[in-house]
Design a protein that fits this description.
By secondary structure, the protein is α+β, with helices and mostly antiparallel strands. It has a domain of 73 residues: Arc Repressor Mutant, subunit A, CATH 1.10.10. The N and C termini lie far apart (36 Å). The protein is built from five helices and three strands; from the N terminus they run H-H-E-H-H-E-E-H.
Amino acid sequence: MFTITDEEAILLHRYICEGVGDPKRLRLLYLVAEHPRKVSELTEFLGVSQPTVSHHLRILRDRGLVEARKEGTAVYYSLSNPRILEALDMMRAIVAQFLADGAHVLSAT
């Protein structure tokens, strides 16, 4: 039997679920997993403003999902743990299976 304690559930929700609870943050995680990137690069990839990217990076950093490393005046963001992408990829596979099975409730809106 698999169980999760109340404390584990709260921490999982607070640090992971809330951290990845926005499509922009999910995309940021995949972008910084490729290699460390500056905010200016990330704004270009996402096509959103610098304050928006900085806001999402702060949320990811506060939850321990990304790390920031300063080089001179530039700050580079990278994934804090490669297992984060493993977990996200598993969830993506579940969504792909739902879609393949015709689960229309999962269509992107």
